[in-house]
Every structure is written in C-alpha cells, then in structure tokens.
C-alpha cells in the first residue's frame, strides 16, 4: 500500500546579510539590533552583528565598527582585531575575519557616520568596499568612489594592509599603530584613525593625530564623539 508522504517544508535559508535577517513577511524591516548571520563558505560558524535600519528607508546596514564613548580600549593587538572585540550595542570592532567574509561574499558599499561634540554630523560613503584575507593582512583591496559631506579621508588608505601595535604592515619606518595609538589600514601614516584614542573633542598638540580622527572634516587635533563604519550589499537580488 502506498504511504501518504508529507513533503518536508523547505529548509529555511539562514540569513547571510542584515537585509535577509531583518526582512519580515510583510516586506518591512524589523527593528535595529543584534542578529545572527551565516556565511559557511567563509566562516564555519555563525556570528552576531548589529543590523541598522537605513535612515532613508533603504536596505539595512551591518555595522562593522562603532565608537560612542570612552569605556572601551581600542589600542589592541592583531588577534583581537582579527576576531573582534567590544559590545555590539555600544563600542566594538566586528573583526577582520568577519569583515572579509561579508565583503567577499558579494559586492558591498561602505558608510562612515561621523559626529562631533557641536552636534555636527557628516557622512562619507564609498560605492564599493572589500578587504583581503588573513594571508593578505586584510588589505583594503577594494574601495570605490567617495561621496558625502565629511570629505574623503579614506581613499589614501586604499591598497594598504592592516596594522596593529604588534603586527607592523604599513609603509612607514616606524609602526603607525604605535605612533598613533590605534589600528588601521595605515600607509605613512593616516588621514583617518577611527580606532585611535577617544579624547572627546579637541586634544593637545603633543598628541598629534592620535585621536578618533577624520582629517578632512575636523583635522588632526579633534577626536570625534561618534563614528561608525557600516556596510551593505550593493546589489540585492
């Protein structure tokens, strides 16, 4: 006798982006917050990210770095920058391994949100962004055209490897991460230093460029109040 076989429901596709993680059945996006993503071809484990609704109503963003207060030390070594540290709801760096996985899974764009202590807000966007793998020292391998209001303090870092205080991959005679108390895609050394010291506004001249600096906007002696780096898939199918 034939059995009535009930077909199993199709396996739910696990989300690989904030767009997939936040999209609801009604087509709208859920609230910003922490979501779990899966990219098995790059990382063999799920990982958590902070997904942010787009302020203009577009596709959501994945925050890969955020500074908003002085309660987290960002002057850290290679291992921590590779794997990530901090609190996803506050100050954190997602991890170079995860940023590589995300930006190499499909084409992404990049958004810097920058705010000072005088309620000034600026934006820098780059139409494409990807970094290399561990063997490439997470080189800033892809960076597209700049647009925005902050001025361009990132294009000069294109093609540079990531440097931390214990892994010197920059083009300077010294270690730029040590010199500027941060970790970044330094060249000789920087036009932006968003993992620098959280001074909280203007800082002394003898601390040249060591703060949370975006040179094109507030110069080398001003440490910003809030910054984030966020990415999202450029073309969504």
From TrEMBL:
Keyword rRNA processing: no
Domain Fibrinogen C-terminal: 9-235
Keyword Disulfide bond appears in the UniProt entry: yes
InterPro entries reported in the protein's UniProt record: Fibrinogen-like_C, Fibrinogen_a/b/g_C_1, Fibrinogen_a/b/g_C_dom, Fibrinogen_C-term_domain, Fibrinogen_CS
SMART domains, sorted: FBG
Disordered: annotated span: 1-20
GO CC entries: extracellular space
Protein name: Fibrinogen C domain-containing protein 1
Organism: Bactrocera latifrons
Gene coding for it: FIBCD1_3
């Amino acid at each position: 006798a034939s059995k009535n076989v009930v077909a199993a429901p199709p396996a739910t596709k696990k989300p690989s982006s904030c767009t997939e993680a936040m999209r609801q059945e009604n087509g709208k996006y859920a609230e910003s917050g922490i979501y779990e993503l899966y990219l098995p071809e790059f990382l063999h484990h799920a990982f958590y990210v902070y997904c942010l609704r787009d302020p203009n109503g577009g596709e959501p963003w994945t925050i890969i770095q955020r500074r908003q207060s002085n309660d987290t030390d960002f002057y850290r070594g290679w291992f921590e920058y590779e794997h990530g540290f901090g609190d996803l709801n506050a100050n954190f760096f997602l991890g170079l391994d995860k940023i590589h996985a995300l930006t190499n899974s499909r084409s992404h764009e990049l958004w810097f949100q920058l705010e000072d202590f005088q309620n000034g807000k600026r934006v820098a966007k780059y139409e494409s962004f990807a970094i290399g793998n561990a063997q490439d020292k997470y080189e800033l391998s892809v960076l597209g055209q700049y647009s925005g209001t902050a001025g361009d303090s990132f294009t000069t870092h294109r093609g540079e490897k990531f440097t931390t205080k214990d892994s010197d991959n920059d083009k300077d005679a010294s270690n730029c991460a040590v010199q500027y108390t941060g970790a970044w895609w330094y060249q000789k050394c920087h036009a932006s230093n968003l993992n620098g010291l959280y001074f909280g506004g203007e800082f002394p001249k003898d601390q040249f460029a060591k703060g949370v600096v975006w040179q094109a906007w507030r110069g080398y002696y001003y440490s910003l109040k809030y910054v984030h780096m966020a990415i999202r898939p450029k073309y969504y199918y």
